[in-house]
Amino acid sequence: MAEDKPDVAWRVIGGLVGLVTAWAARKLLGFVWVKATGKEPPVDTDSPEVSLGEAIGYAVLMGVGMSVAQIVVNRTAKKRYDAWKAVKQVTPEH
Question: What are the sequence ranges of the domains in the chain?
Fold first, then answer.
């Protein structure tokens, strides 16, 4: 039953990975937006100065892009952590 609880190390690592991923994905998606539209990303999508199409397009890009980035990075990090943990359990500590 103790195996069902996520260990503290993974929770900390997962949290840090999530923060870094969100920051990096936001920067990358902003860059993609500028290259695709030639305009800076909208700061306030609720502003009447931002067209509805632009606001929706940006929301879709950010929502899908952030979700995909989180899934890929979290899965990769978890696989690497589990592999490291398995090696650590096999190797006796001195």
Answer: 1-38, 42-93
